[in-house]
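Query structure, 229 tokens:
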């Protein structure tokens, strides 16, 4: 599974030089999960983070942990730009259908973790991610470190997930627009995999996914292999 590897490389390159803090994964130090969607009213909000959240899956080794580039939640005083990137190491599935199903299962996690006092708004049709953090949670010590531990715990419930690195970026010096482009590209790769699983169209000249297959190594071979061609 190397379809997302070039985006991972690009993401790591773009953040190089920005100051970062790394935390080891600690399952016990996870922030409390509220167990379901919560509503934080504007009057209870400390600040909002708005930007992009996306996953990148690979078969290469990923060390569990959390990276914070920019301010931690305790140091944020007003609304700011934000990007969350989660890089996941998975066991190579036996076939393409299982690969696609696993990517979907991993994607599902982002809609099913509910850090207490950290209201996430996201959509299945977009990679946009907005977070409202409550004053109460800030007072109780919420941090990217403990929210990240909670998110990793959730991913680890999937047995094929072997390593998870969650990167939270709030630095104003980071190129958040570039991260949006990466998220869009990663979404296009997943959509192409979906097409490959379901389509009988093998005419690359008329296929609207040609730009992705031209760029991402192994994608075209995967389509033809999936139909025994
Ligand atoms: S291999 Fe060709 S037909 Fe298949 S998704 Fe890629 S461009 Fe489209």
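Result returned for the query:
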């Amino acid at each position: 599974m190397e379809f997302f590897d070039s985006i991972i490389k690009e993401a790591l390159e773009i953040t190089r030089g920005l100051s970062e803090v790394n935390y080891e994964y600690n399952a016990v130090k996870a922030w409390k999960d509220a167990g379901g969607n919560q509503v934080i009213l504007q009057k209870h909000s400390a600040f909002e983070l708005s930007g992009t959240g996306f996953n990148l899956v690979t078969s290469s080794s990923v060390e569990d942990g959390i990276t914070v580039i920019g301010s931690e939640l305790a140091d944020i005083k007003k609304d700011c730009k934000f990007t969350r990137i989660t890089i996941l190491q998975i066991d190579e599935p036996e076939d393409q259908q299982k690969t696609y199903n696993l990517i979907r299962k991993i994607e599902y996690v982002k809609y099913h973790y509910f850090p207490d006092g950290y209201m996430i708004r996201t959509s299945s049709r977009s990679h946009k991610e907005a977070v409202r953090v409550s004053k109460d949670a800030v007072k109780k010590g919420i941090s990217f470190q403990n929210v990240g531990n909670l998110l990793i715990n959730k991913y680890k419930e999937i047995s094929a997930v072997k390593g998870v690195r969650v990167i939270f970026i709030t630095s104003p010096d980071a190129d958040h627009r570039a991260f949006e482009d990466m998220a869009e590209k990663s979404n296009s790769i997943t959509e192409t995999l979906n097409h490959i699983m379901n389509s009988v169209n093998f005419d690359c000249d008329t296929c609207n996914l040609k730009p992705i297959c031209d760029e991402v190594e192994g994608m075209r071979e995967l389509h033809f292999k999936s139909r025994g061609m």
